[in-house]
């Protein structure tokens, strides 16, 4: 089944901080992070059910390969709802909050 991917409105903010930090570290690193993020979104799109659960029986996660970030998402009937992109050591309590406050 092909799922439509939808992103929480705060995903843009989730991406902004690490991209600025990687830009300050080395030329091109920001683009490498962005490419890995897009590749991870594609992996989720291709095989969403292959990702493990975290926190509850419906929140799944995907680890970026080269960077210490995690993408959290849920699978609904016909769509994948991407809830957050967080650093692995960042407080992840917002993931459940975002799931509960997702607009209908």
Write up what this structure looks like.
This protein is α+β, with helices and mostly antiparallel strands. The protein contains three helices and four strands; from the N terminus they run E-H-H-E-E-E-H. It has helices at 11-25, 29-46, 93-100, and strands at residues 4-7, 59-63, 69-75, 79-87. The protein has a four-stranded mixed β-sheet with strand order 1-4-3-2, sandwiched between helices. A hairpin with a 3-residue loop joins strand 3 and strand 4. Helix 1 packs antiparallel against helix 2. The protein is globular, with a radius of gyration of 13 Å. It starts with a strand and ends with a helix. The model has no long low-confidence stretch (mean pLDDT 93).
- Describe the strand arrangement of the main beta sheet, using strand numbers: 1-4-3-2
- How many strands, which pairing sense, and closed or not: the largest β-sheet? 4 strands, mixed
* Proportion of helical residues: 25-40%
Instruction: Give a count of the beta strands, DSSP E runs of length 2 or more.
Output: 4
How far apart are the termini? 22 Å
**Tertiary shape:** globular
List the helices and strands and how they pair.
Blueprint (H helix, E strand, L loop, with lengths): L3 E4 L3 H15 L3 H18 L12 E5 L5 E7 L3 E9 L5 H8 L4
Helix pairs in contact: 1-2
């Amino acid at each position: 089944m092909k799922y439509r991917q939808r992103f929480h409105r705060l995903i843009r903010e989730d991406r902004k901080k690490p991209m600025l930090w990687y830009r300050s570290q080395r030329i091109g690193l920001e683009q490498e992070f962005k490419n890995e993020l897009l590749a991870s979104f594609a992996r989720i799109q291709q095989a969403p059910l292959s990702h493990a659960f975290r926190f509850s029986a419906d929140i799944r996660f995907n680890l970026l390969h080269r960077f210490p970030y995690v993408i959290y998402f849920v699978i609904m009937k016909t769509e994948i709802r991407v809830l957050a992109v967080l650093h692995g050591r960042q407080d992840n309590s917002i993931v459940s909050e975002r799931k509960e406050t997702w607009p209908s």
